[in-house]
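Why this split exists: single-chain examples teach little about how molecules sit against one another. For that reason, every record in the complexes split bundles all components of an assembly together and asks for one structure covering all of them. Below is a record exactly as it appears in the raw files.
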Amino acid sequence: MEKDNRSPERREVKTSRSESKEEGSESNVAKRARVSIRARCEAPTMHDGCQWRKYGQKTAKGNPCPRAYYRCTIAPSCPVRKQVQRCPQDMSILTTTYEGTHNHPLPVAATAMASTTSAAATMLMSRSSTSQGLSSITAPVTSTTANINGVNFTLFDNSTTRPYNFPNGSSLAPPTITLDLTTNTSTHLINRFSQAPKFSSTSLDFSSSSENIKFPTPWGNNSNYLNYNPSPPFNKTPFGSIGTLDFSKQPNGLTGNVRNSQSSSPSQQLFTETIAKVLTSAPSFQHAVAAAISNMVGSGNSTNSWRATGNGPNGYQNQVTGLATMAKPSFTSYTSNHSQSTLMSSLSHSKGSSSMAPSTSIDANNNQ
DNA sequence: CGTGTTTGACCCGCGC
DNA sequence: GCGCGGGTCAAACACG
């Protein structure tokens, strides 16, 4: 109670806050779209390669677990925020919700996550903007499953099983996509997120497809395809669009594909390779991702421009203390002007260039 | 001393 | 119009 004697300043605070809510016209859409990642994680927060500052904590209604609010501190003006909350049903499950788009260079480790969320968010916005009559449909839970070497990617409409973090749901909740890494899952894979910031994730964007698509993967023996089969009802939810990518099965038999990356786990490696394979072997898929990220970043420029961290001309790098060390174990610390550049460059670089740290192993098993 | 976290209050949008 | 709840702020505090 004695805390708040700042009411005069509050007026200005309020003004600036409402400004910041509207700020970034280019990211207006992006700010509305949110991407949640559900993962088993013992750590208080997932390390995604970015640097965050906690600015608040709140106990949400209907959830005894407090929700923590973080904002990206790599750049002072970065609008990206994330919310971290434990699942009341299973305290080991951590839900991290990202909102907004970074407006500054990112290290690879962070870019991977940013790309993922951006692409997912773009998928959301793309679908919600193109779908019609979404409020009139109450679709049952429908799912779309892809299988890559035993890893299931399930994209399902959970509109009827409303996420707990939006207890009263409805229009209050911005369109949100959930990447569900919890079901049955590869705990080591998750732990890579939670403990070591060296996960070279990737970006999945299913937005531009309308039919069953199979992306070949060069390894494995039976299900050598990433099978994407969008269910029509997916894009029609009362919330705009809500979906889940469900990495529901731990790949067994992780042999042969594991590279010699310093400290990556086999499952992480496999996962990375899996995704990389899909992307590198499916140009159209790359395109979709690139376009998605391009949209999110608000720049149609697809030029890759690389810049070493540590002494970038814009000064950002100096602010990201700890970031370099975070990225060190697995990545040569690159940043790029645009997340899309980073992702796509990392793909192409890893194919033939030595610029990328070999441990990204994106080029592993490339079957060209 | 600098940086990050905690925490109570305030703002604002939405539902009733 | 009112109340509720989520999101945010910033002073105080903790920690290295």
